Amino acid sequence: MLDILHRYWTLFLVGSWPNGPLGGFAATLILAGSGILSSFPLAIGLGMARVSPLGWFRWPATVWVYTFRGIPLIMIIFWAYFVMPVMTGYKVPPFATALCAIVVYESAFLAEIVRAGLHGLPPGQIEAARSIGLSYGQAMRHVILPQALVNMIPSLVNQFVSTIKATSIVYIIGVEEVTFAALQVNSVEMTRALQTFLVLAGYYFVACASLTYVARRIEMHIAQRRMQPAGQKTLVAGVVESAG
Amino acid sequence: MEFQLSFLASGDVPSLLLSGLMTTLRLFCGAWILGFVVALALVALRTIPLAPVTMLVAAFVAYHRNVPTVVQIMVWYFGMPAVLPEPVRLWVNHSDTEFLFALVALGLNVSAYMSEDIRSGLRAIPHTQLEAARSIGLGAFAALRYVTLPQAIRISLPPLINRSLILFKDTSLAMAIGVAELTYQVKAIENLTFRSFEVFTASTLLYLAGSLTLMGIGAWFASHYPPPYRG
Q1: Could you tell me the end-to-end alpha-carbon distance of chain A, in angstroms, rounded to an integer?
Q2: Residue B70 in contact with residue A164, Cβ under 8 Å?
Q3: Which CATH superfamily is domain B12-224 in?
Q4: Helix (H, G, I), strand (E, B), or coil: what is residue B2?
């Protein structure tokens, strides 16, 4: 197993780069990272629409969330692969296709995290903000979202872990990420499949386990800040405190 | 090219979709049962106060939670035949190889998550329950079996149902090793006919029907079996 790692670690890490496109685990992280970042604004909109008192916003957002949480990512990738060339008129590269599918898929999950964050705030927050004369948009922008987002950080990190794991299927449309690299190695090293795929598993394991650890630390930190007596609070802790 | 619903009723299409759906459901049910049984075993093992046992179970859970499901399927399908004992390998090779490996991989994957769900349910039960059970003469295993575990499973029903939904969607990953489940058949029909829109719509609706059913069961349980009152 170690000699597989020794011989192919660069292929696993960056693919055929610098002689070819950037691939391997770097591509996995870029795909997952840009996927979750691009879906975040969409998710905030969806999350706010999900708690909106206006049915015109609430219902489409609810249908969106339930639909994309209810079908496998592969189906969304198939749809993107089929629909995007028709819509744009160009042949879309696999990476962009996969990114679009992941943005749509993750937006549904992130929207539920945003919704939970908004629900976690006491209703007095929005009432107070409105009663001092802020508009709905101002209240959301300056009072509600900043508090809700701090509480959401651990869930967001966990969702990033889920996204890293979810990207492992995009090799199916030819994106050269780390699972693609492992399949390449496997086709060269025919007889050592177990070692090859355990090395692949190791790459994911190290990244996901450490990110999960970070999420847990942040969660503990937020919970601890919340327990502190009122006199010791910093500004940020005060925001968190009023959320709990 | 316009949308033709009649295409879905033509030729081999309905029978291919149906056989794909049946394979998906068989895979889901098989992996769920395997996962639940292994999860119970893991929960029971974790109660043994021996450091090596606890560490082994923790490592099993950590591996299955931090490695993508499709990679776990590949480890089983491509990697395991080399290390399985000869009789087992022959038996697997003579039956539905891809299906069996996918079932084992998905089952073990979901067992790790389920065992954590049940364990956190177990933690929610007051310690006095166990003490009372032991003091009326039940052994450690009997106390778990008859007193704490049934309550823990009820508390952990919402996460267990949510996990079942993820398992249902994860069965689509079995296409990576060539299991002829719904997604695999969809791709096969699309390659033959280029009727992408019709066949994707049909399969999306089928997956959605399954998922919404599971979400509905979850909502029903949540409203009919609220968490027990804890005073």
Answers
A1: 48
A2: no
A3: MetI-like (1.10.3720.10)
A4: coil
Residues of chain B in Cβ contact (below 8 Å) with chain A:
62-63, 65-72, 74-75, 78-80, 82-83, 165, 169-170, 172-173, 175-176, 183, 186-187, 190, 196-197, 200, 203-204, 207-208, 211-212, 215
Q: How far is CA B99 from CA B24, B102, B141, in A?
A: 10, 5, 34
Token pair of A244, please?
């709990």
In the numeric block, the tokens 């691939």 are attached to A23
CATH fold label, A2-209: MetI-like fold (1.10.3720)
* Residue A45 Cα distances to A70, A111, A180, B81, B224, angstroms: 20, 8, 34, 48, 32
| pTM listed for this prediction | 0.90
- B215 and A208: CB-CB below 8 Å? no
**Contacts of residue A209 in chain B, CB cutoff 8 Å?**
62, 66
Sequence-ordered alpha helix ranges (H) in chain A: 2-14, 24-50, 55-70, 73-88, 94-119, 124-131, 136-139, 145-166, 178-188, 193-227, 235-243
Residue B82 has pLDDT above 90, yes or no: no
- Residues of chain A with Cβ-Cβ distance to B204 below 8 Å are 71, 75, 79
Residue with tokens 């339930």: A66
ipTM, two decimals, is 0.90
Alpha helix positions (H), chain B: 13-46, 51-66, 69-74, 86-94, 97-123, 127-135, 140-143, 149-155, 157-170, 182-193, 196-224
**Boundaries of every domain in chain B:** 12-224
Eight-class DSSP state of B214 = H
10-residue mean pLDDT profile of chain A (244 residues): values are: 85 85 92 95 94 92 95 95 87 93 96 92 90 92 91 92 96 94 91 92 96 93 78 49 46
